[in-house]
Amino acid sequence: MFAILKTGGKQYRVAVGGQIIVERIAGEVGSQVELSEVLALGDTEAPVIGTPTVTGSSVRATIVQQPRSTKVIVFKKKRRKNYRRKHGHRQELTVLKIEEISRGA
């Protein structure tokens, strides 16, 4: 069985036992997270597609780690004007391990 869920403004296709990297979710490493914004469910039977979400369904996951992405450098320059700006950004991420997909009602 798989589920398509939405978190952090992005959509992910997940299955039980898989790991996904999402935008930072608050919580300690090892704690459980309930993701209730499930857009679709599928298995050997006919898939269930929500309008916009599948009512009563949820995905339970465990927080594996809370890393940061690699640094992205933003460099601005205007030629001949001695204008240079360098700015770095590291996005905070969360690695989730999918424990259970519940179909609901």
Short description:
The protein has no helices and ten strands. By secondary structure, it is mainly β.
Give an overview of the whole structure:
This protein has 105 residues and is an all-beta fold. It has one domain. 0% of the residues lie in helices and 57% in strands. It is built from no helices and ten strands. Strand 5 and strand 6 form a beta hairpin. The relative contact order is 0.30.
Q: In whole angstroms, how far apart are the ends?
A: 16 Å
**What overall geometry do the principal axes of the alpha carbons give?**
elongated
Q: Count of DSSP helices? A: 0
Total number of domains:
1
Total beta strands:
10
Stretches with pLDDT under 50, minimum 5 residues: none
Query: Main beta sheet, described?
Result: 4 strands, antiparallel
Helicity range = under 10%
* Major sheet: arrangement of strands: 2-1-5-6
Structural class: mainly beta
Task: Estimate the mean pLDDT confidence.
Answer: 94
Radius of gyration: 19 Å
Q: Secondary-structure element order, as H and E? A: EEEEEEEEEE
Please describe the topology of this protein.
Elements: E1 2-7, E2 10-15, E3 19-23, E4 32-35, E5 38-42, E6 48-49, E7 58-65, E8 72-78, E9 83-89, E10 93-102
Antiparallel strand pairs: 1-2, 1-5, 3-10, 4-7, 5-6, 7-10, 8-9
